[in-house]
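Design job #97: recover the sequence.
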């Protein structure tokens, strides 16, 4: 999938929530509980990459989840924006 297609899917989610927290666990809890469709997990969160890894593992068997590594950016998103969409810089 091209980067432009990924960005279009994120744009179609409407709002992108910027998630910050004191810990990766707090950030994950906010993502799961928040019900937002678009999520940016900032790297000001301690161990943010670990939080992204945990989310990726949680949804690894979900057919609507894709993990795409392109352009030195890790994009983790759901193809159906009725569920979560997420993106993060690696």
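Job complete. Output follows.
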């Amino acid at each position: 999938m091209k980067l432009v297609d990924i960005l279009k899917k994120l744009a179609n989610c409407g709002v992108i929530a910027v998630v910050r927290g004191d810990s990766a666990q707090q950030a994950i809890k906010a993502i799961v509980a928040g019900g937002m469709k678009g999520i940016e997990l900032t790297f000001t969160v301690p161990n943010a990459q670990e939080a992204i890894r945990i989310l990726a593992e949680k949804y690894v068997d979900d057919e609507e989840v894709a993990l795409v590594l392109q352009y030195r950016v890790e994009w983790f998103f759901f193809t159906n924006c009725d569920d979560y969409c997420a993106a993060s810089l690696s």
